[in-house]
Structure formats: structure tokens, C-alpha cells
Amino acid sequence: MSKRHSAKYKIDRAMGENLWGRSKSPVNKRSYGPGQHGQRRKSKVSDFGLQLKAKQKLKGYYGNITEKQFSSIYDEATRRKGNSSENLIGLLESRLDAIVYRAKFVPTVWAARQFVSHGHVTVDGKKVDIGSYRVKPGQVIEVKEKSRAMALVLEAQQSSERDVPDYLELGDRGFSVRYVRVPELADVPYPVKMEPNLVVEYYSS
């Protein structure tokens, strides 16, 4: 098992939830936490503990973004007008690697970041290899012609585990997507409940 896969499953076990809704998640078989004390009866979690878990869950979902990156996204979310928790989700979903994953170009968020960094996608016809690149509504993301036959891409497109959300518009036989609009929390197809309001409380406390 690769380091990326083991890290992904470790997050699932630590959170006690199947974050990405994947059939291979170990949580489907063992709902308790990792380690020798994983099956101990859980004690009541403090407000801070709930906030921390909400942050770790959201951060982990997007490929375990670094704390520095995640806190800077939060800072921008709070600087923008409107609801900070909604802004946070909108900024996370505007990342290029997140859109590559949502569009089903690849099977996992971890693969999406690597797929982008290896230069397999373009934005409005220009190669972009930075996963954190912020896509603007109206921009078109496309899998390069020579990358379309990759097993990884074909596996993702044939998967029935998830659907492409309506804030993305597929084209060119599923190999390109237009970012129609910045989504709100209710629009994002998270397999588990995300609580960005608790994340805002965590950073503002």
C-alpha cells in the first residue's frame, strides 16, 4: 500500500467516518479508531474537541492540506464579505485539485493533486501544475489529450461511487469541465457531514 493510500485510510480511521464514501474504506469494517485503544468507550468531547475534529476532517478531506495553507484559506474566507463558513467551502472547492477530483478525472483527491502536479491538465488551454491554483467561474479545465488513456482516468470515469455536482459542466466526452459557479455548503456532495461553522469557531476562539 502506498504512503498516500495509507495516510488516506489513517484519516478515515482517526475520524471514525468514511470521508470520501469509498467502498474500500476500513471504517466500513471497523468503525472504531486506530491503535490498541481504539475500541475504548468514548468520553464526552469538549467544544474545542468538536471544533478541532471539524477542522481536521475538512482539512483531511481535501488531501490533508498543510496547516499553513488551510489557515491562510481561512484568513481569506474571513476577509471576504458574507458568511465566513460558506466562503471557506467556496475557496476549498475552487482549488484546481478539488475540481479535478469533482470532475471525476481521477479517483481520489490525493491522485488529483499528483495528476495536476505532473502536468496532465490545462486551464483555459494553458498548463497549470499547482494543485492549490484558484479556478474562477467560467474557466475550463481539461485533461491533456495524451493523458486521457491513463488507467487512473479511465477508472475514475467508470466509477459509480460519486456523481459530478451541478456547479461543474462536463464537456468533450467527460475530459473537460467548466467551473460554472462557486458552490455553497449545501451544493457540495460530501459523503459525511461537514461543519465549517465549527472550523470558524476553532480559529476565532
From TrEMBL:
Q: Does the keyword Cytoplasm apply?
A: no
Q: What Gene3D superfamilies does the record point to?
A: Ribosomal Protein S4 Delta 41, Chain A, domain 1 (1.10.1050.10), RNA-binding S4 domain (3.10.290.10)
Q: Where is this region: Disordered?
A: 20-46
| Domain called RNA-binding S4: residue spans | 94-158
Pfam families linked: Ribosomal_S4, S4
Q: Which residues form the Small ribosomal subunit protein uS4 N-terminal domain?
A: 3-93
Cited PROSITE patterns: RIBOSOMAL_S4 (PS00632), S4 (PS50889)
Q: Which GO terms describe its cellular component?
A: ribosome
Record has Transmembrane as a keyword: no
* Classification via InterPro entries: Ribosomal_uS4, Ribosomal_uS4_bac-type, Ribosomal_uS4_CS, Ribosomal_uS4_N, S4_RNA-bd, S4_RNA-bd_sf
CDD domains linked to this entry: S4 (cd00165)
* Alphabetical UniProt keywords: Ribonucleoprotein, Ribosomal protein, RNA-binding, rRNA-binding
**Top-rank taxon:** Bacteria
Q: Which residues form a coiled coil?
A: none
Q: Which HAMAP family match?
A: Ribosomal_uS4_B (MF_01306_B)
Q: How does it assemble?
A: Part of the 30S ribosomal subunit. Contacts protein S5. The interaction surface between S4 and S5 is involved in control of translational fidelity.
Per its database record, what is this protein's job?
Answer: One of the primary rRNA binding proteins, it binds directly to 16S rRNA where it nucleates assembly of the body of the 30S subunit. With S5 and S12 plays an important role in translational accuracy.
In the record, the note on similarity to other proteins reads: Belongs to the universal ribosomal protein uS4 family.
- Protein name stated in the entry: Small ribosomal subunit protein uS4
Gene name on record? rpsD
